[in-house]
Amino acid sequence: MQTYCSIAALPEISKASFAFLTHSLPGGFGLIGLLLTIFCLIHALRTRQDFWWYLILLLMPPFGALLYLFMVIFKGAGESAQFVLPERGAGALNRRIKDLQDRLSETDTIALRSELGQCYLKLKNFEKAEMYFESCLQGNFRNDPFLLYSLAQACYGKGEDEKALETLKKTFREDYRDYLNERYFLQAKILGRQDRPQEALDIYSKIAHHFTSPEFFCRQGLLQDKLGDSEKAHAFYLMALRQASKLTPDELKEAQIWLALATRNLSGKEEKES
Q1: The total number of structural domains that make up the chain
Q2: Separation of alpha carbons 6 and 49, rounded Å
Q3: Could you tell me the CATH number of the domain that includes residue 144?
Q4: Where are the alpha helices (DSSP H) in 137-273?
Q5: For residue 245, what are the domain limits?
Q6: Is 135 within a domain?
Q7: Which residues are paired to 176 by β-bridges?
Q8: DSSP conformation class of 141
Q9: 128 and 113 Cβ atoms separated by less than 8 Å
Q10: pTM for the full model?
Q11: Which terminus in the chain has less CB density within 10 A, N or C?
Q12: How far lies 248's CA from each of 79, 219, 233, 244, in Å?
């Protein structure tokens, strides 16, 4: 039987726990223990750990926090695939998936399912990513905005634009500000692909100060072309090309398709003008 927890389901940290942390331990260790416990609780909430971790953290301070550090944070850090680029780390991601699936067969948790979905998302296996994210949307996590955002990315990758857009809309809540600009970017991409150029451009203008990638400018250039404004499209393609000198080698490699598109479209416009 699976047990999950949300912020609303957590019990309040008792006065006795605070008293133990701040008075029973000598010197400044009580304060350190309190801060460590709070840090672990925040990490547990953000990574969607099982309910029994919250009990351990709340009822066994600061020993529960130390146990959490070694069993979850330190152990996970060495295995994390969060910052592995798909084109360089496919092998590492596949090994991580195998490890996660082995652990999932022993203990079925939302945290493991969510991480599996993220791994498949990085590998662009959108079908499996969608399957895992949808399996996470249950119980206290039925309306979890991060899981919904992840599901929307998988649906967009599969070409299920309507489902992606409806799922993404559920993440725009006053109590959730994480990845806000990224969510707007995804919404604009979906609208652009649905042949709703003006709506997409309105969103792009809202997040214009947060993105400077060639992709960001090229997508707007394509939309302006669709609306028949070749002058604005030309300006966006030029901005895309100007970003090339500011990119790292890895970023430059990823941006090649967009830089080539900008160059091709600008060349075509110059030929027409001449």
Answers
A1: 3
A2: 10
A3: 1.25.40.10
A4: 145-158, 161-169, 180-193, 197-206, 214-227, 230-242, 249-254, 256-273
A5: 212-274
A6: yes
A7: 173
A8: G
A9: no
A10: 0.70
A11: N
A12: 25, 21, 25, 9
